[in-house]
Specification:
The complex is a heterodimer of chains A (about 270) and B (about 190). Chain A is built from seven helices and seven strands, in the order αααααααβββββββ. Chain A is extended and about 75 Å long. Chain A has helices at about 5-15, 20-30, 35-50, 60-75, 80-85, 90-115, 115-155, and strands spanning about 170-180, 185-190, 200-205, 210-215, 225-230, 240-245, 260-265. In chain A, helix 1 (about 5-15) packs across helix 3 and helix 6 (about 90-115) crosses helix 7 (about 115-155). With about 190 residues, chain B is an all-alpha fold. In chain B, about 45% of the residues are buried. Classes of the chains: A alpha+beta (about 270), B mainly alpha (about 190).
């Protein structure tokens, strides 16, 4: 059975995610009761997948693969245990379902006999709704934060150093440090290109104690570099930040090279 | 941090269903094999939509990480894996481009298309067919389809940009997609 002709064009737009407003509402209502149009929608999504093949372009950089595998290694394993429960023997699943069903029946009987439990359940539902709303807000804030970090660290970002008029740009850096979160963002510009086998290292010089390593980095072709949230000990009070020129190999736990740029808190 | 010992090496011989079953068991090597198989498609479409390598990498990461966390979201009733991933990636990229919340619930996406693109040769052949079909389209039809697909523009936005009537744009988009479908029916 073919899809209904009056919805044919709108089905394509819905597959593309670009159908909005009353047209979308009308079509979604129609789809609830029309299997042939739902099938056509699935096929149109397949046609969309074919469009993806026309994109062409470079392979992703090697770092993307490592980034994914590192993220996977950090994932909690308990989620995999839950998923793998589906692979357990069928008798186990049947027993689980039976116990769950019997438990649900007992709960229903208790609720019918105790109206206080019903009122508590309603109150909990309201709290869940509130938490869900809060979660949506926090999700939006997280997306904003990701956008900021992405902008700061994007290799395509254009970095502009503004200096006094008629003054040539000099090496400089900006460190934004939040002590109680051990959170640090460092932006550098106009750094000289590195000599062979050398690397820059950022240091947090505390009010007391030895310098704290805060990240190794190499500038891009424009002399710009970014360090975002290197691992730092908790709650260190920073007196100054310094960038030194270090040998690329060997230990980096204490500064050995000369200082390139430094600065104290504003 | 200790990692699970891989129980499957990357191999073209392992089909998607095999790898997904391994991923459900927490097999990181199977995940890496799927990534090696399909990351180019995902990255290419995300890069074409977003025009930015960093954002395209983010979409790539998000799509595969979501698959790792919820491999049960995909099963064979949803079609073949590669087209399904391509649709998810394109939609996520468009959401990023338009700075909007995801409009498609990943659990609702079903993709019905013939080539499963698991093999390198399958993907190359499919790519050639698609490019051939697009090359044979009327320029106005191809433009409307690409604006809708890669820029996420609505038919009214495309009509406004091109100066064409709304109904014409709607029909061009749909007939463009059907032309791609026909290329794989022959």
């Amino acid at each position: 059975m073919a899809a209904h002709e009056q919805f044919a064009d709108d089905l394509a737009l819905l597959a593309l995610g670009s159908l909005q407003g009353d047209e979308r509402i009308a079509l979604e209502k129609h789809l609830e009761g029309c299997a042939s149009c739902r099938l056509e929608l699935d096929q149109l999504r397949g046609d969309m997948a074919l469009m993806a093949l026309s994109a062409g372009g470079p392979r992703p950089p090697a770092r993307a693969r490592q980034r994914l595998m590192d993220a996977i290694a950090r994932e909690p394993r308990s989620s995999k245990n839950i998923v793998s429960a589906a692979a357990r023997p069928s008798w186990w699943r049947a027993a689980t379902l039976f116990i769950a069903g019997a438990s649900a029946l007992v709960i229903l009987l208790l609720v019918r006999q105790d109206t206080i439990l019903i009122h508590q359940a309603q109150s909990l539902a309201q709290q869940v709704a509130g938490l869900q709303s809060q979660s949506l807000t926090e999700q939006a804030e997280l997306e904003d934060a990701r956008e900021i970090v992405s902008t700061l660290t994007s290799p395509d970002a254009q970095r502009v150093t503004l200096v006094a008029v008629k003054t040539p740009p000099r090496p400089q850096g900006k460190a934004i440090y939040v002590r109680n979160r051990s959170s640090l963002i460092f932006l550098a510009s106009n750094l000289p290109q590195l000599p062979p086998e050398k690397i820059y290292e950022l240091w947090l010089i505390p009010q007391a104690g030895p310098p704290v390593a805060a990240g190794l980095f190499k500038p891009d072709a424009h002399g710009s570099a970014t360090v975002v949230n290197p691992p730092l000990p908790a709650g260190v009070e920073a007196k100054t930040f310094v960038v030194t020129l270090e040998p690329e190999s060997g230990s980096h736990d204490a500064p050995r090279g000369s200082a390139v740029i430094s600065g104290q808190g504003e | 941090m200790a990692r699970a010992e891989p129980s499957v090496g990357p191999s073209e011989a392992h089909n998607d269903a095999f790898l997904l079953a391994a991923i459900r068991g927490g097999d990181e090597a199977a995940m890496a094999a799927l990534y090696d198989r399909y990351s180019s498609i995902i990255y290419s479409v995300a890069l074409r939509v977003l025009g930015d390598t960093g954002s395209a990498e983010d979409v790539l990461q998000e799509v595969f990480l979501q698959l790792w966390r919820n491999p049960a979201l995909f099963d064979s009733s949803r079609g073949h894996l590669a087209p399904w991933l391509a649709v998810i990636a394109r939609n996520r990229a468009i959401d990023g481009l338009r700075k909007r919340r995801p409009e498609t619930d990943i659990a609702d996406v079903i993709v019905s298309v013939e080539p499963d693109m698991a093999g390198e040769a399958d993907r190359t052949r499919a790519m050639e067919k698609v490019r051939g079909a697009l090359g044979n389209m009327l320029p106005a039809q191809r433009t409307a389809l690409e604006m809708a697909y890669f820029e996420g523009l609505s038919h009214s936005e495309i009509a406004s940009k091109t100066g064409e009537p709304l109904g014409t744009i709607k029909t061009r988009i749909r007939s463009g997609l059907l032309t791609l479908r026909k290329a794989f029916e022959t």
